[in-house]
């Protein structure tokens, strides 16, 4: 059986070897581009040569700026003014405050407010009383990131300080740096 298998393998190998071409195979893309010799000078753009003296003789353009404001459209100005007045009327927005004290003692709440006045004069403290609990919240922060910066400093004194989402005063929030 091994001999029959070996003979069959030998015959099939010689048949397949006979099908192989003796010429080396060349890439058709390389041949197509290596023999390219078309003349494109007829379609290239032609420019008139200019001397450096001709380019230096160009007159300078002077721009005159008027003192009057540039009005695009009076209707547009009216619309922008109404939008600006509506934006000025907005006093409150959603933001964040840091709650530093929660308890039943008024004196401790006042001490927390005093700590805020002395340590962070740019932050406004707010005392909220809902019977029988006093809450002291500080700051008017637009973003949570701003509140987190102050939270680390406040936690040195008040470990239970947390950030709360609240409505804040926009004018006061602009004063916080």
TrEMBL record:
Cite the entry's keywords alphabetically.
Answer: Signal
Q: Where is the signal peptide?
A: 1-17
The record's annotation in Pfam families points to: SPOR
At the top level, the lineage of the source is Bacteria
Q: Which PROSITE patterns match?
A: PROKAR_LIPOPROTEIN
Q: Name one GO molecular function term.
A: peptidoglycan binding
Domain called SPOR: residue spans: 94-163
- Tell me what this protein is called: SPOR domain-containing protein
Query: Whose protein is this, by species?
Result: Runella rosea
Highest classification ranks of the organism: Bacteria, Pseudomonadati, Bacteroidota, Cytophagia, Cytophagales
